[in-house]
Amino acid sequence: MTCMMEKQEPCKMDWQHFSLQDFLELRWRLLHDYDAVLPGGEYFGQVRCGDVCYDIQIEWLDADIWGTETGTDENHEAQRELFVTMSPFFPHAKKDSSPPYDELVPGMPYDTQKGGSLVCARRDFLQMAYEDFQLWAEQGIAAKIAAFPRLQQEACRLTGFWDKHDAILCRLRQQEKEGQNGSTDNET
Question: Where do the H-state alpha helices sit in 96-158?
Fold first, then answer.
């Protein structure tokens, strides 16, 4: 990728939020418990490149849209299949008057890029080793970043947005956990 960071280093993919263990859990889920995947999908981790964060999920998608051979049945109804998806998110531009895509934690709005996602069929994912998946994802992410100027801009920045986002989210989850423990203590 041609993006250069402030210190003139190439933009590198950060895999610390999707380890080999995460990969193996995702793989196990796709092999042994895929029927129980919720309709909205399930989150398994993320890979980061600068201020661009690609969430890694499994989702039920229409097979005919994504080009799988079992896309329709004899009645020509779309079949739903599991796919591993990677969708990009980046900090919302405060100067942009349009509303942010989402705000999971207070004060940390973020956007996404339509057309910037990667999609991998379940059967294709199951044929990959962790290193193969990393290579596939890095090549795909590099191509998507190269295709979209806003992704290029955000991949070249490293503001610490996602670290701050994670810290706030952890604090909120801890407060929620403590609140649940407090209500349990009061009930006994």
Answer: 122-125, 130-147, 149-155
Is residue 112 helix, strand or coil? strand
- Residue closest to 151 by CA, chosen among 163, 142, 160: 142
Q: 76: exposed, middle or buried (C-beta count within 10 Å: 0-12, 13-18, 19+)?
A: exposed
Between CA 44 and CA 96 the distance in angstroms is: 30
pLDDT top residue among 180 and 17: 17
Mean pLDDT of the chain: 83
Task: Please give the structure tokens belonging to residue 130.
Answer: 């962790």
The total of other beta-carbon atoms located within 10 Å of residue 48's CB is 24
Cα–Cα distance measured from residue 113 to residue 88, given in angstroms and rounded to the nearest whole number: 6
Q: Which residue has the tokens 């329709």?
A: 72
Query: What is the H or E stretch that residue 62 is in?
Result: strand 52-62
Length of the chain: 188
46: tokens are 């993320």
